[in-house]
Amino acid sequence: MMRSDAENTPAKSRPVIKTCLCFIVFLSITLYMIPNLDQTSSTSIDSEAEILQLEQSSNDKDQAEFSGRHTPRNGQHMSESSHELFKKNLMFIKTHKCGTSTLVDVFYLFGVRRKLNFVMFPSSHQLELLNVEFKPLLAPRPGTVYNMQCQHGTFRPNIEHTIMPKETSLYSTIVRSPVSQFKSAFSFFGAEGKVKKKLGSQATIDELIANYLNSHPPPDDNHVTTSLIINSIANDLGWTSFSNRPELEGSTLQEKIDAFIQHLDNEMDFVMITDRMDESLVLLKEYLGWNITDIMYLNRMVSSKPKVTMSDETKAKILQYQVIDRQIFDHFNASFERHIDKIGREKVASQVKQFREMREKFENKCFNKSKTVRGPYNSITWQITDYGRNVNLACTFLQTRDVMLTHVITQLQLSQDYEVPMEGGFKMEEIITKIKHDYDNNEELV
Fold first, then answer.
1. Which letter does DSSP use for residue 140 in this model?
2. Residue 21 and residue 143: Cα distance in Å, rounded?
3. Is residue 442 helix, strand or coil?
4. Residues of the chain with pLDDT under 50
5. Rounded distance, CA 170 to CA 420, Å?
6. How many CB atoms sit inside 10 A of residue 59's CB?
7. CA 138 from centre of chain
8. How far is it, in rounded angstroms, from Cα 142 to Cα 253?
């Protein structure tokens, strides 16, 4: 039977930057202060009045927004009448180093504004559903159902189907080009640093990667590595349990990969592509019936490292080891084109152009791009503006790590009432000052 290596790369030291109380206060005020960036007759956000709208949408309007116009199946199997159906809820599987933290902030903001219920364990950003039997999930509000799942956890469809029924939930995930995804994970999870200590600081990126990959056996019919760094997308999507199914015993590696991809194709309604993030969000918006402003995101982290070019030989070696992730990416990158064809290429291109113009204006209001600062978890980010701190808290929300926002959403969902007043009788000015204080204390100019 296929066995899988799990690498025990120690997590980076991550200091706690904000207290839960600050986040709870912040989220409660966000419900009232985040501007309602719904589309108007204009094709872009040009006026301050549009950006600074503070009133919330009505429940009826929000419910209408949170309904899909299509029921996709990887660009295929959609009949002409399918637009009359909808997938109300979203089941999203996070994949490591694929831009999912940015996406989860978008999903959290959408859900919090509409008082939706998230599938999660209390105050945990990890969602290993095998633990459900021993550790209860955070309950939805009385008389409601779960609306969103978007945390890290291995995809386990037999459990997912009972929590987020496929009849009413859009099943989605995201994949990334296997070379760039590997390079990001290789650096983020500490493998690059470990090998550099071993080989010396003068070692090239090609030497570092070659040394790391050579410490693992190459894939064959008896073994393939899946970990946080090698074939991590397959690992997140449930390769280990799937490849060990009794009916696959005796199959070649390629036969197992083919069966796994077909399994994912059957389970996932729409697979996003990190390398085509804006197009992915526009398509997702179409499938869920959201407005274009509901998919607004911020590039909160700025890389301070010069780009390092890998040799073609190194890229080929990465693809050899990324044998499962490479084929998953190739399959869903092709199906992505069929999704675009279904929605309409001209329509998608027009909306992507509009979205990028809107996002650039929003980002320029949130950040002072002439200054970079040391942000949460030692990230490098642009300096947030007074507008982002004091006027439009969506800027603050969308640049806050989803790991920290999880604590706030837990408290909101536990309270069973998103409008419950905060203890202490805080005044608006005091809350704004506290949020600003926390960010000032953690901004180290770089």
1. P
2. 28
3. coil
4. 1-86, 418-446
5. 31
6. 10
7. 20
8. 47
Q: Which amino acid is at 374?
A: R
Nearest to 396 by CA among 112, 48, 123, 114: 112
**CA angle, 87 as apex, 396 and 95 as ends, to 5°?**
55
Residue 405 is inside which H or E element, if any?
Answer: helix 402-415
Whole-number average pLDDT of the chain: 76
Tokens, residue 34: 């985040």
Percent of the chain surpassing pLDDT 90: 46
C-alpha to C-alpha distance for 426 and 19, rounded to whole angstroms: 16
Residue 90 pairs in a beta bridge with 148, 170
User: Distance (Å, rounded) from C-alpha 40 to C-alpha 50?
Assistant: 9
3-state secondary structure 315-374: HHHHHHHCHHHHHHHHHHHHHHHHHHHHHCHHHHHHHHHHHHHHHHHHHHHHEEEEEEEE
CA distance 436 to 446: 19
Rounded CA-CA distance 305/69 in Å is: 42
> Cα separations (Å) of 145 from 68, 130, 366?
17, 20, 34
C-alpha 98/C-alpha 109 separation (Å) is: 19
The pTM of the full predicted model, rounded to 2 decimals, is 0.77
- Residue 329: how many CB atoms within 10 A of its CB? 22
Between CA 343 and CA 357 the distance in angstroms is: 21
Q: How far is CA 60 from CA 2, 48, 64, 300, in A?
A: 51, 26, 6, 32
- β-pairing, 89-93 with 444-445? unpaired
- How many other C-beta atoms are found inside a 10 Å radius of the C-beta of residue 322? 26
Place of tokens 């999912």: 100
Q: What type of residue is 299? A: N
Closest CA to 14 of 101, 94, 110: 101
Token look-up 């904000």 returns 18
Dihedral of CA 124/125/129/130: which sign? negative
Quote the radius of gyration of the chain (alpha carbons, Å).
22
pLDDT tens per residue across span 182-233:
999 999 899 999 999 999 999 999 999 999 999 999 999 999 999 999 999 9
Cβ contacts of 271 within 8 Å, gap of 6 or more: 74, 172, 173, 174, 175, 264, 332, 335, 336
Q: Could you count the other beta carbons within 10 Å of the beta carbon of residue 241? A: 13
Q: What is the pLDDT of residues 400-420, one digit of tens each?
A: 777 777 777 777 777 655 443
User: Are 103 and 175 contacting, i.e. CB atoms less than 8 angstroms apart?
Assistant: no
